[in-house]
């Protein structure tokens, strides 16, 4: 197999310098766990899901885990054959079509940038909440409001810039920082949620784990998208495959992180429902974890969950910019984007220019999002949009794995369960869920307005993400004449001849 990380075939361009192999399996686990941001998902996502699926948080998290696990099998197997900074962008492009590959990479990048934009606001909101618990409610006569998109975004922007600068310094430093943040976050989550299981006064019910009790098909689809979004990010470890000493370490890191996420979500969902009645859980939304902490402890201990949420948001910002910059690096290396994305830091061998450019784009998008006045509404609008595009590119990657490894159905049926059957079932589930959710958005209203609860607005955002990807692909194909789109220059994964057209 040709080593794409060191001698990429990119037309007449000179080979790019290789990124440094600086991380192992533990660092991979840390990166994947930071990207999925369990504490942030628990802190702001459980309340949103409770408003949709009621007291079935454990059920929806378990249900969503199954297709994601199947898709993770496809990612892991493809990464073992060819670790690549572009991951799904390269694999789908070589197995199916460069157009689908480009679209996969594009919606992944755009979705992550949207995530970074709203997580910037979430980070600022957590800081303001923490200041409020420290009895600092105003600065210079300005009343601090954690649900103000404007105030939260300004604070979060400063944090995003700092996180990007650390990412430029190198994966080893970023992984060490995130490791300490994760240890604190998980320690706080385990302590408070474990205590909440026994201290809560809401009666426990096994029906909480029964997905057949979810109110409606629309609630099931919406809840599934939100839950899949919570697991989203495990695949970030595969985008640093060229910087991992052993490709199998990336797969191990992704699977371990996913399993830990499941256990944390089940624990937290059960604990939240033991402590908080449904109306309180749903009403607190983005401030759910902070409210949960105040129900279980007095200050200053009650502030610990909020500090954990803030750390999680910071880590997820950094863990988002890292794989996104590497995805853009791979696309620039193939000539579908400009050469600026391939410039590595002379000392740290990281895509430094790309990292800073992505940060600037996320900052600009965060500023545009100020038209949505409250943090809760911003989160809801962003999560719905990202959930649909995540379902799309997960499904494309899983289908690519199934097609490429279909011979295992004859030669190794047991291995085929992981590389073919699991990915296919996961892809079909997510496509059906995302399609049904898009249909419910379309039918939910007869007019358009910029509002998080307007179905046409919720549908417009993923449509723009996908449509812009098709336009960008056309520009790269016919204006830049990128060799990525030429069948002769696009060998399949593993170095076999490609059938892409």
Automatic annotation (TrEMBL):
Alphabetical list of InterPro entries matching this protein: AA/rel_permease1, APC_superfamily
Transmembrane segment boundaries: 29-53, 59-78, 99-128, 148-168, 180-200, 212-234, 255-276, 301-322, 352-372, 378-405, 417-442, 454-476
Keywords noted in UniProt: Cell membrane, Membrane, Transmembrane, Transmembrane helix
Entries under Gene3D superfamilies matching the protein: Amino acid/polyamine transporter I
Compartment(s) of residence: Cell membrane
Membrane association type: Multi-pass membrane protein
Record-given protein name: Amino acid transporter
Native organism: Streptomyces gelaticus
Taxonomic path: Bacteria, Bacillati, Actinomycetota, Actinomycetes, Kitasatosporales
